[in-house]
Structures are given as structure tokens and as C-alpha cells.
Amino acid sequence: MVVGSRLRAGLPSTDHRPPDKKMQQQLSTKHLLGIKYLTEDDIQIIFETADEFKEVINRPIKKVPSLRDITVANMFFENSTRTRISFELAEKRLSADTVNFSASASSVSKGETLLDTVNNVLSMKVDMIVMRHPAPGAPQFLARNIKANIINAGDGTHEHPTQALLDAYSIREQLGDLAGKKIAIFGDITHSRVALSNIFCLQKLGAEVKVCGPPTLIPKHLPALGVGVEHDVRKTLEWCDVANVLRIQLERQDIKYFPSLREYSLYFGINKELLDSLNKKIVIMHPGPINRGVEITSDVADSEHSIILQQVENGVAVRMAVLYLLAARK
To answer: Fewer C-beta within 10 Å: the chain N or C terminus?
Structure first.
């Protein structure tokens, strides 16, 4: 099935020719609720579409009319900087109309339910919803109860699918095909939605995945998912091609999982001296926000090893691709 003529009117090519076959493929789902609901083909379609949109955002006129008749509501029930701005930019680059919702300034603070809030927004003829919510499963709940396309921008400690897609896309850009690549995820795995989505995405693309951190911050079930577990940072760095470093999510921790941030940094932080002592060059990633001096030092975050800012740039292209492809499933 091909993308409808409504979307084909504004294509991400410099001369507005009809899309090639890659751009005409459709996703197998009308929502992006989590990586576990995507097929490998879906991920490849998103990446191929993102390639086209990356050309758009790097040219003088960074806008196409692809979604000029689509209205998107950004509904964030948790604080966000990178993800929210990235989605807003993606929507504007596609010429969509956007509505921004903040829970703290809404009727949610008066006791209104999530479903009532969303239905009131939809009654204003909104086509797609990008939602971040502290409750795991909130996007799945909405998808069962409303007709609009739902994009999960993070639900509790469950998943953050667009972050995983942009991370994998950034690795693909650096190393090519992900099959057989060794990817290590460092840090607070227990409280991270990024970690779970990355594990699902990387495994679907054929990569080997290992996690590294304190035993208290690594879930016991990970080996059952085919994920390696290591507690020695040096050994893990010597093993991997890419190190994706996560922050300690103190806001999600109700008890102390390690004695102090200083001790965590000493035993599990990544610094330039450690990287320089390796016999190879590895790629350093971080989804942000960075706690400099805790999980990673500034001289690593800003080094030639780092692709952190490339991740941010790629996030706009990947989210443009997701919005474009899901709008085709309306």
C-alpha cells in the first residue's frame, strides 16, 4: 500500500518529485506505542524515511508541506526539554498545526481524568497525539479508547521508542549495519525507559547488547531477554563498539541504590583517562540530560568520541519520519 496522495503533495525531496519506493512503504501499525510493537521492516522504513528528511533539515529551506492538513497535540504530563522541542520542530518542519498541552496548567490539576482530557482535545479535531506520561501503559490505554494516532514520548519506566530509534539511527550513521555490532548501555537501567526501548530496537536489528552498572540498578530479568550483564566498566568498554551512557534518575528513586554520587562516579563513571587507556576507539552516546562529572565527564561528552549532538539532530529527522508515516495510516 502506498502513502496517500494527500501526503504525497509535499515530499521531502529538493525538487518535490514523487516519492521513491522506500518512501511509499507503510508501517504495520497506526500507533508508535513501543519498540516491541514494531517489526524490523518497520524500523528500516523509519530509517529510510529519516534519511530523506535529514536532507530537508540541512538545506536552506527546512520545511515541507507534507502534514499541512494535520493537527498534532503535544501532551506532556512530565517535564521534558529535548523530546518536546524535537517533536515540535519535527511537526513545524512538516507544516503540521500544533497544540501544546501542559498538565500543570490544565484541568488535570482539578481532577480531570486522562481520557476526559484527551477526548476534550480530540473534540477540537486533533489528528495525532504525542504523549509523555508518568504511568507505564498510558499510551496503550489511549490507543484502545480513541481513534487518533498515538505516539509514545515516554511512559514511566516502560518505553521511549523515538529515543531508541534515533539512537539506533545514529549508530547506523556511524558504523553502518547494526548486525553484529556490540552495544553497551551504562548506568541506571532499572529506572530507564530508554534502556528497555534500546534493548528491543538493537536486538531487532541484530546487535549484541550488554548492560553495565551497579547490581542494584540492573533488573534481574535482563538475562532472560538475551542481554549480557557486567559490573566492570573497563571490561565492558573493552568489549563494546558503542557506549550509550545513561544518567542516574534520582527523581524516580524512592530509596538509595548506592552510597553517594561521588562513589558512583568513581566506580561507574566514564572519563577521558579511561577511554584513552583502551586499545581502540569507541562511540560515546548519551540521551540527555547529562549529569556531567557523575556518569560521564565533560572531556568525554565533548570529545571526538562523542556523537551526543548528532543524536539531537537525528532526533528531529527520525521524529519527522514517524509523524509522516503514521499520518499515512489515518
So the answer is: N
Residue 139 and residue 60: Cα distance in Å, rounded? Answer: 36
Question: Which strands make up the sheet holding 242-245, listed edge to edge?
Answer: 228-230, 208-212, 182-186, 242-245, 283-285
Q: Is 244 helix (H, G, I), strand (E, B) or coil?
A: strand
pLDDT beneath 70, residues of the chain: 1-24, 103-110, 249-259, 330
User: Rounded to two decimals, what is the model's pTM?
Assistant: 0.89
Q: Across the chain, which distance is largest between two alpha carbons, in Å?
A: 59
Site of grid cell 500500500 = 1
Task: Retrieve residue 212's grid coordinates.
Answer: 553495565
d(CA 138, CA 249): 20
Question: How confident is the model at residue 21, as a pLDDT?
Answer: 43
> What is the rounded CA–CA span in Å between residue 308 and residue 283?
10
Q: How far is CA 73 from CA 35, 107, 215, 232, 323, in A?
A: 21, 16, 40, 43, 12
In 95-155, DSSP assigns E strands to 97-102, 128-133, 149-155
Q: How many CB atoms lie within 10 A of CB 31?
A: 20
- Report pLDDT digits (tens) over 162-221: 999 999 999 999 999 999 999 999 999 998 999 999 999 999 999 999 999 999 999 999
Q: Which three cell numbers stand for residue 64?
A: 515541507
Q: Are 210 and 184 in contact (CB under 8 A)?
A: yes
What's the confidence (pLDDT) of residue 20?
A: 46
Closest C-alpha among 60, 114, 71 to residue 95: 71
CB atoms within 10 A of CB 42: 20
